[in-house]
Structure formats: C-alpha cells, structure tokens
Amino acid sequence: MPGKTWFITGCSRGFGREWAIAALERGDRVAATARDTATLADLVERFGDAVLPLRLDVTDRDADFAAVRAAHERFGRLDVVVNNAGYGQFGLVEELSEQEARDQIETNLFGALWITQAALPILRAQGSGHIIQVSSIGGISAFPNIGMYHASKWALEGLSQSLAQEVAGFGIHVTLIEPAGYSTDWGGASARRATPLPAYAAFHEQVEQARRTRVGTPGDPVATRAAILQLVDAEQPPLRIFFGDGPLAIATRDYESRLATWREWEPLSIAAHGRG
C-alpha cells in the first residue's frame, strides 16, 4: 500500500512534531507547518523530500489556504489533515483581556476551521480523507483558570461533530483527539497568562494545588506515535478518543453529574414546555 500524505499544523514541538516523526519514519509524506520553519530543519535533513516545511500562522486564513494548496501541489493528495496548532490561555474569566480572549479563539478555533475549509474540497474530490482535530479533556470538561481555553475547545468539539455528519457521505472521517496532561510545554513556554487580580490570590493557590493533584504524572508524547498511526489506519475511526490515562474517569464523573442534575430538574423543564 502506498504511504499516506499528511498535513500537520504546529510541528515545531509537542504532538505535532511527534506525529510528523511517526509518519515520516514509516515512509509517509508530511507537509509540516510551524511559525518558524527553522524548527523543522532537522526533519528536512533526516527525511529529505518526504517532508515539506511550511511557515504558517494559522490565524491567517489566506495563508492557511495557500499552505494547503502548496501541500497538495507538492504531493498530489492529502490523506490526513491534523489541526494541532494551539496554545493554552491561563486566567480566570474576570482576569482576561479582550485581546487575550480573541487571540485564543482565533488560534484554537478559527485556525482549525480555516485549515479544514481549505482541505475539504481536496478530500471531497478524492472521496477519502481523515481530519484530526486536537481537542483536549478540556474540550468536554472544565476547570478554573482556563475558561477561555475551554471555550475554544468546546467550540471545536461542536463544530467537528457537525462536520463529521456533513462529510461522511464523501468518505471523509473526522476524529477529535482529547489528550490528558502530557509532558509538552502547553503549560510552559507556549502558554499565555492573564494578569492576576489580587482579589483571587487565595483562589489561585487552591486552583494550582487542585491542578497538580488532577494531572498526576504527565503522559509521554513519544508514546502517542504508535497511537496516532493506529488511529489513522483504522477503517472506521472514532469521532472521539482520549489519549492518556485519566480522562475517562473525569468524563464519567462529569457526565453522570450532568445527567443527575437534568433528571432532578426535569419536572421544571417539562413545565416550561407549556401546552402542545
């Protein structure tokens, strides 16, 4: 079987880089994007023409379309499109500036939307393709101090669930990967942090302590290489999948709580319906 052709955003580090390496090592071809293509130089040196480095800021819609077009022109097809580029915006809801809020949505949501829109005509013409949306356990649950990040990922989840239904008839699959905490720099150099308000000083300490307890031992990003290959090779890939140990327990508690609350308040819900 011929190898797959990938388009992956955010390949300078983290999951994007690990998945590019996984694909290239098995003989696939990768269009790898980064804000600074110098971070991809070692991949080009190692894998040669199998990798196409592309400088890209995913918030630039025109540049997104141009990058996808360049990848298609170079390789002739696209099999796997991975929307990985993104970052974590830290800050309580009251602490967020307008620009911080807008920037988070521009990158994590609109960046994925533009790449998806650019790729879809190609995938439809092929009658095949797999769009991978990198969400998070934060795409289905929520914790303090990253509300804007949650907003971006919850939006991506809804968008992608609709998308999956819209494109299934064209032979296109959509998968939301929802990772747990991993040893990437998501909470380090890549993160952005709002200016804290003194009124929340004690709460910030509580939040940080709870986060350390919740995250535990972070996962190893290298371990996701085999997982991503198995996922994209599946004949019927899932719409949603967790990466890492722990998210299922969080999701179970969260959804059981929601169901219990909805059931408790169902009499009021029905009363609010009125007469048919």
Molecular structure report:
The chain is 48% helix and 15% strand. It is α/β, with parallel strands linked by helices and 276 residues long. Helix 1 packs across helix 7, helix 3 (61-75) packs parallel to helix 4 and helix 4 packs parallel to helix 5. The mean pLDDT is 95.
CATH superfamily of the largest domain: NAD(P)-binding Rossmann-like Domain
Number of domains: 2
Output the structural class: alpha/beta
CATH top level label of the largest domain = Alpha Beta
Give the number of DSSP strands: 9
- Major sheet summary line: 7 strands, parallel
Order of helices and strands: EHEHEHEEHEHEEHHEHH
What is the name of the CATH architecture of the largest domain? Answer: 3-Layer(aba) Sandwich
Please describe the topology of this protein:
Blueprint: E1 5-8, H1 14-25, E2 29-34, H2 41-47, E3 51-55, H3 61-75, E4 80-83, E5 89-90, H4 98-126, E6 129-134, H5 147-167, E7 172-179, E8 192-193, H6 201-215, H7 224-233, E9 240-243, H8 247-264, H9 266-271
Parallel strand pairs: 1-2, 1-4, 2-3, 4-6, 5-8, 6-7, 7-9
What is shown here, in short?
Helix content is 48%, strand content 15%. The chain has helices at 14-25, 41-47, 61-75, 98-126, 147-167, 201-215, 224-233, 247-264, 266-271, and strands spanning 5-8, 29-34, 51-55, 80-83, 89-90, 129-134, 172-179, 192-193, 240-243. It is globular.
